[in-house]
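[09:14] KT: can someone run the structure on this one? pasting the chain below
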Amino acid sequence: MAIQKDQQATIVISPPKFETMALRIIGESPYMQLRFSKKGEILNKMAQGSTAKGKKARECRDYEAEYKAAMYISSEGWNGIPASCFRNACISACRLVGFKMTLAKLSIFIEADGLDLTEGLPLVKLNGTPEISQMPVRNATGVMDIRTRPMWREWSCDLRIRYDTDQFTSADVVNLIARVGMQVGIGEGRPDSKSSAGLGYGMFRVGSSGEVTQ
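[09:31] RB: done, C-alpha cells below
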C-alpha cells in the first residue's frame, strides 16, 4: 500500500546569504614577508636519500636569491600577500570579542586578486616597494643565523571580504578588520606571532574611500 507523504515539508536550513565588502587598508608599520622557501631543499634531500647525510662543502649563500625567494609573486608579476593570512588573522581576532572561531572559519573569506606563480596560492595584491632586510635569528636548533627577507616600509592592499550576513553585519566586518590591523597584524614580526610577541610589524588601519593606494 502506498504511503501518503506530507506535501508541506518543514525547512530548517536557510539558504546562504553572503555579501562582499571592499576595504582599503594602509600600513601603519612595516610589513615583512617570508615565504616557506625550504621546500625545494627538503625535496632535494629526500631525492638524495642517505647520501644527503654525508659531509659536504658549505656553499656560499646568495642573499639576493634568498630575498627574492621569500616573496610571493603572482602569475601576472606583482607582489602579493596570501589571502589566507588575512582570513586567519580575522579568525584569530574573534577571540578578542568572544565570537566563536569555529563559526568564523565558515563565515568570512578573502577574495583573491590572482594566484601565486609557483604554487597557485590565492594572493591579494600588495602595493608598495620592497627592500632587503637582514636580521639575526635563532634557528630551532639554537644556532644563530641571518635571515634575509623583503620588507615594505609603506604598503597598502585593497581587500574584498566575503561574509555570511547571518553571522556578521557590515559594521562587524569593518570592526573585525580594524582589530586585525591594530591587535593581530600580518606577516613576520606581527604581534600575534606563534613563536614570539612580535616586532610590531604588519600593523595597519582601515583607510577612507578617498585615500590613494601607494
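[09:33] KT: thanks! The longest strand covers residues 18-27.
[09:34] RB: yep, looked fine to me
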